[in-house]
Amino acid sequence: MLLGCIGDDFTGSSDLANTLAKQGMRCVQYTGIPSGLAARDVEAGVVALKTRSVPVDEAVAQSLAALDWLRAQGCTQIFFKYCSTFDSTAEGNIGPVADALADALEARQVIVCPAFPGTGRSVYQGHLFVKDRLLSESGMEHHPLTPMTDPDLRRWLAPQTRHNVGHVAADTVLAGSDAIRAALAAEDQADRRLIVVDAMRD
Fold first, then answer.
1. Residues with Cβ < 8 Å from 3, sequence gap 6 or more?
2. Rounded distance, CA 70 to CA 175, Å?
3. Which end of the chain has fewer CB atoms surrounding its CB within 10 Å, N or C?
4. Which of 176-188 are b and which e, b meaning 16 or more Cβ less than 10 Å from the residue's Cβ?
């Protein structure tokens, strides 16, 4: 297994697994953390958890357990799948889980990008849009568990994490990989670990 994915709910995990399979990867979705080994021909594994709205400590513990299992299968890259509307509160769970996974992986930076342009989710100037509406004007501001009242992902994420939050703007993304690397290096120098990256097309 090369790519290990940790999803915070079943539906989003299914969407991710379907996308990976359509792109040609041999992908398996697991409901919860498996007790046994993955098949040897699996290239991408998606562990579907139910951690979106559970207590923070429980979400972190389950996500770290999923990480341990995926690493034991040989995964060399880890992807944390959360909702494309960034469903969370000031307490979490996106920030605390991202922090915990980054610590466990000794990752200097974490890319934060809930964009899924194919379904109308895009990030521009650090703000999340649902089609042509800001997240906070999309109906998600009325969500009963995670009312999304601020579309600025930097502001929304800041109280959830122990680390500074940075941003790579659309102009830099469109300039190509070298420009993106330079921007990430600059954010690293500024001690920003979680980096919101604009994305408006697949």
1. 20, 25, 43, 44, 45, 75, 76, 77, 78, 79
2. 34
3. C
4. eeeebeebbeebe
Question: How many other C-beta atoms are found inside a 10 Å radius of the C-beta of residue 141?
Answer: 14
Alpha-carbon separation of residue 4 from 27, 50, 77 (angstroms): 10, 17, 6
User: Is 90 exceeded by the pLDDT of residue 202?
Assistant: no
In this prediction, residues 142-163 reach a mean pLDDT of: 97
pLDDT band at 170 (very low <50, low <70, confident <90, very high): very high
Q: Choose among 146, 147, 115: nearest CA to 129.
A: 115
Q: Where in the chain is the domain with CATH 3.40.50.10840?
A: 109-202
In the numeric block, which tokens belong to residue 124? 């521009």
Residues sharing a CB contact under 8 Å with residue 25, sequence separation 6 or more, in sequence order? 3, 43, 44
Distance CA 16, CA 29 (A): 9
| pLDDT given at position 193 | 99
Length of the chain: 202
CB 39 within 8 A of CB 113: no
Q: Please say whether the structural domain 109-202 has been given the CATH code 3.40.50.10840.
A: yes
Determine contact, residues 57/150, Cβ cutoff 8 Å. Answer: no
Average pLDDT on 41-65 reads 98
